Amino acid sequence: MSSRERSFWGWGYADRFPNEEARRALGTQLKALLGFEPPMLASPPGIESIRLRKSRIHVPETLADFVRADDEARIRHAYGKAYCDLYRGFNGQYPTPPDWVAFPRSESEIVAILDWASDQRVAVRPFGGGTSVVGGVENRDDGDFRGAISLDLSKMNRVLEIDEHSHSARIQAGALGPELEAQLGVKGLTLRHYPQSFEFSTLGGWIATRAGGHFATLYTHIDDLV
Ligand SMILES: Cc1cc2nc3c(=O)[nH]c(=O)nc-3n(C[C@H](O)[C@H](O)[C@H](O)COP(=O)(O)OP(=O)(O)OC[C@H]3O[C@@H](n4cnc5c(N)ncnc54)[C@H](O)[C@@H]3O)c2cc1C
H/E/C letters for each residue in 144-178? Predict the structure, then answer.
């Protein structure tokens, strides 16, 4: 997959955000359409300038190999992609980020995280592509927990097994749409599930949210395919 940098607050790639000149031109168009002056041109903060509260939980040595507790990882896993998420991200508002982010590479590492977290009364939230529009990946400090972990599944993105006769496959939950299609495509197969967020959402996220693939016809829901 591409190593192109994703926007930490908005949809898609960081380099797609229009520059100041383009945003000014957009403001002028809006003025013509809506009839009022656009408010002052604002810019999002640099990710390095955002200050987070301290992590409330230590990273145990047994998990340290696949955990990140740096601010950038915590910021990138704080919100989904609803308008209110974009608004808060654009304004550098991150009051309740996850305390750290785990990137398990295997089922046994997931088990290790869940065992530790349940023992320590720490909440764990799976994070697929982070395209939720209903706050599904956001920690809000609710519940009686000592801390919150974001469980990022991006390292578990492989198609493990394909049965060409029955047209079925075993696929890890963290595979993004393009990743799983590329692997199925080697055998001339497709999952044929195309939500509008296809590029940045994952199989696990689709199943958890019972996604609808509106770019296809007939069997469009993930429920039809699992
Ligand atoms: C621009 C845009 C277009 C969109 N288009 C569509 C569309 O066409 N159709 C549609 O249905 N939705 C759409 N969505 C919503 C969103 O993309 C879907 O809900 C998608 O299924 C989320 O997948 P994700 O991998 O990003 O999951 P995330 O946002 O990371 O997670 C969503 C929820 O699922 C849970 N979760 C994630 N992975 C797992 C896992 N492996 N195991 C257990 N729980 C897990 C998370 O904890 C969270 O609660 C769109 C969103 C945006 C921003």
Answer: CCCEEEEEECCCCCCEEEEECCCCEEEECCCCEHH
